[in-house]
Write a structure and sequence with these properties.
The complex is a heterodimer of chains A (300) and B (440). Chain A is mainly alpha-helical and 300 residues long. Chain A has 16 helices and no strands. Chain A is elongated. Chain B has 19 helices and five strands. A five-stranded parallel sheet of chain B has the order 2-3-4-1-5, sandwiched between helices. Classes of the chains: A mainly alpha (300), B alpha/beta (440).
């Protein structure tokens, strides 16, 4: 077999794709297709590149050509993802079901479909489909990726921890591992730990705008100005108000028993402190914006 | 020997593959099997084109020069430039029996019975003198880099406009230790190693690397991912070994890894094993260089330093980093002047003003600006029918309509510096961004 241009070029293009350098991969696949327009594999990879570069319309167009080829199942699966991304859930479901008709044992398609059902609110059905995907390929990192998001959304803490553990063991993608750890910590309101994980993910992939946005939000949340908000988020408002009412009742009782020290000093100080913290939590956002403005002016 | 046998087998299975023939020729050359090497290269020459053709000719010239006892040649003569080193020898002169022929004789085998069937006899009679055929190569255009792509660069720092800080850093970190290793040894300072250029795209990293090779008076071997990756299992790693072998044969040599973020991609981010083994092999080869004796330097260039495997930035590898920013005002002035050479333009064009108005523009951006101005002028000429030169106003108008391509990179790196510069690796970048913050 001759090692021709297309074999080497395909190797190079796939290498770029696996490194997530989608722009270089796009260029390489286009060169391949210029030489051999019937190269369906290159076309499919190119569609995936467009999808990863948020160019869904171009990806959709390529997939529609591929549904008449031997890669129909993969093309329908990608179409399902595109429609899901665009919010066309009905079309997404139709595409996933067509893909499953052609390849019923595709764990990845099942996982994609389960995620769609989760987004549409069909939790029970989503769980069934996800279990089937896990049964078919329990170590597939894409399946485990969706499994994590499923448990993160509807599952209990233990199930979510189990999903993360499975992902950590079976996946090689460090960036995604750190993102998941960060998201779990955020859900548990451990904001500093969440920031640490997301910062590590950002170090590995600084061109990802979603990671940057998460990091900026976490930096904001962890700023000193937002400590009352963090406090209320941890304590939870209902519990706090109940505690406040209970403590008022206790102080009133103590005032009757002990007298002036409680009535003249402790009681007012306590009430004023709580009010300050509550008002601070309401104005923390404008305070933070003012702080950023002053910081920017001082830099100039 | 095993490697040669394996390669011979691969050549037998893929008879039309020129690259395999070239690699086999290199193996023969390294093993001292000169006649086999010449025959293999000659066979490959029949179908080679472009860069590969030049490489093979370089190898043949090198073999011939070694036979004559000269130092390795840096290129090859074309007609009209003096006698070719390979001309003027009769077929019988210098035909030493090859080790394979001697072995065959000693084993009582006729050459045709030699166990290695893909030997020189398969490629016709033993190669005699090679005559370089006229034609093929055009004279280099004025202003273009006149050095061959892979050879002894004629560019030096004198050809690089501006960027004095960068040039000074390279001189101290690389050139002086390379040229005067004795002085640095006296102070127990290790010379050699590697250098990593990083910066926005189109700002001259490759050009500066060539100029560095010119200053070091070393061969310049660019290496791209296409030179390494191969669909056959294990071949990519062998390609890396071959590249370093060739570098050792052509010392002093600078190996330039363009897009080192792809070739040496961070293994923590790759989800498959394909690039992992390539990076492992690269690390192993780099560790095998003893720069003091082998006179080999490695230079890497990247737009994405965060994608480079951290192991590649450890001491002894790409441990010296230099930020190559967009060209400064002096450099931009020189670039404008160079790019306008040959174009009909007003004599009153003030390049200093243009350079001032093009802050953060890369060399490629400046070329775009000039192209845009030229297009506008041509459009006007075609519409009005009146021919005129390019004026300063045309260039300034084109500048206004063009945004520098470096801004996106600088914004990405500014966030990176904000969140990820605990190690101080990006201090240079931070200082640059502070000086240019009003443009971002």
């Amino acid at each position: 077999m001759n090692i021709g241009f297309s074999d080497k070029k395909m190797t190079e293009a796939i290498a770029y794709y696996e490194m997530k350098k989608y722009q270089q991969a796009e260029k390489a696949f286009q060169e391949l297709l210029a030489e051999d327009p019937q190269n369906n594999a290159a076309q499919f990879f190119l569609a995936n590149c467009y999808y990863m570069l948020d160019r869904e319309d171009e990806a959709e167009k390529l997939c529609e050509e591929l549904v008449a080829t031997e890669l129909a199942a993969d093309a329908f699966e990608l179409l399902g993802k595109i429609y899901r991304e665009k919010g066309y859930y009905q079309r997404a479901e139709e595409s996933f079901l067509k893909a499953l008709e052609l390849d019923p044992q595709s764990a990845e398609t099942l996982a994609d479909y389960a995620y769609l059902l989760l987004l549409c609110g069909y939790h029970e059905k989503a769980r069934e489909v996800m279990q089937e995907a896990l049964r078919l390929e329990p170590e597939n990192d894409l399946v485990l990726h969706y499994y994590y998001y499923f448990e993160h959304t509807v599952g209990k803490k233990k199930q979510e921890e189990k999903a993360i553990e499975e992902y950590m063991v079976n996946s090689n993608d460090e960036v995604q591992k750190l993102i998941k750890l960060g998201q779990s910590e955020y859900k548990a309101r451990h904001f500093k730990r969440a920031e640490k994980h997301i910062r590590q993910a950002y170090l590995l992939d600084p061109t990802n705008p979603h990671i940057l946005k998460m990091l900026e939000e976490l930096q904001e949340i962890n700023h000193f100005i937002f400590w009352p908000n963090r406090f209320f988020s941890w304590v939870q408002p209902l519990r706090f108000y109940l505690f406040f009412l209970l403590s008022l009742a206790v102080l009133t009782f103590l005032e009757e028993r002990i007298g002036p020290p409680v009535g003249n000093i402790i009681f007012p100080v306590y009430v004023v402190s709580v009010l300050v913290v509550m008002i601070w939590s309401w104005v923390s956002q404008p305070l933070y914006s003012l702080y950023l403005k002053i910081k920017g002016m001082m830099r100039r | 020997m095993e490697k040669i046998q394996l390669m011979q087998k691969m050549v037998r299975e893929n008879p039309g593959n020129i690259e395999l023939l070239y690699l086999l020729g290199l193996e023969y050359k390294e093993a001292g099997m000169t006649q086999e090497a010449i025959a293999t290269f000659s066979e490959a020459l029949k179908s080679a084109q472009g860069e590969l053709f030049e490489k093979i000719m370089g190898e043949l010239a090198d073999i011939n020069a070694r036979k004559k006892g000269e130092s390795p040649s840096v290129g090859f003569a074309t007609e009209g430039e003096g006698p070719s080193p390979l001309e003027g020898r009769s077929p019988s002169e210098g035909h030493e029996p090859s080790p394979s022929e001697e072995r065959a004789r000693s084993e009582g085998l006729a050459p045709s019975e030699e166990p290695l069937s893909a030997g020189p006899e398969d490629f016709g009679p033993p190669a005699g003198p090679l005559r370089l055929v006229k034609g093929g190569k055009e004279k280099p255009k004025p202003g273009a880099a006149s050095a061959p792509k892979d050879g002894f660069p004629e560019i030096t720092f004198a050809d690089v406009g501006g960027l004095d800080d960068v040039k000074q850093a390279i001189k101290m970190k690389i050139i002086k230790p390379f040229l005067t290793p004795g002085l640095f040894e006296k102070f127990k300072k290790k010379s050699g190693g590697g250098l990593l250029f990083f910066g926005p795209p189109g700002c001259g990293k490759t050009f500066i690397a060539r100029a560095t090779a010119g200053e070091c008076k070393a061969h310049f071997k660019p290496v791209r991912i296409t030179d390494i990756l191969d669909p056959y299992f294990g071949q990519s790693e062998q390609n890396i070994s071959a590249i370093f072998s060739v570098a050792r044969a052509q010392k002093p040599c600078i190996l330039f890894f363009d897009e080192i973020d792809s070739i040496g991609f961070n293994r923590a981010k790759t989800s498959t094993d394909m690039m992992r083994s390539v990076v492992d092999q690269l690390l192993s080869e780099i560790d095998g260089i003893d720069s003091n004796t082998e006179k080999i330097l490695i230079i890497g260039a990247t737009n994405m330093p965060w994608d480079v495997d951290p192991a590649l930035r450890r001491p002894g590898r790409f441990d010296k980093t230099i930020f190559v920013p967009p060209p400064d005002q002096n450099a931009r002035e020189v670039i404008f002047q160079l790019k306008m050479v040959g174009k009909p333009c007003d004599e009153q064009i003030d390049y200093t003003v243009l350079a001032k108005e093009s802050e953060l523009f890369s060399g490629a951006d400046i070329e775009n600006v000039i192209d845009l101005a030229t297009e506008n002028v041509l459009e006007e000429i075609l519409t009005t029918g009146v021919e005129r030169n390019i004026t300063q106003e045309d260039l300034l108008a084109a500048l206004k309509n063009t945004k520098p391509s470096t801004i996106e990179w600088l914004r990405t790196i500014s966030n990176y510096v904000k969140y990820a510069n605990q190690s101080g690796f990006y201090d240079e970048v931070r200082n640059y961004l502070t000086r240019h913050k009003k443009y971002l």
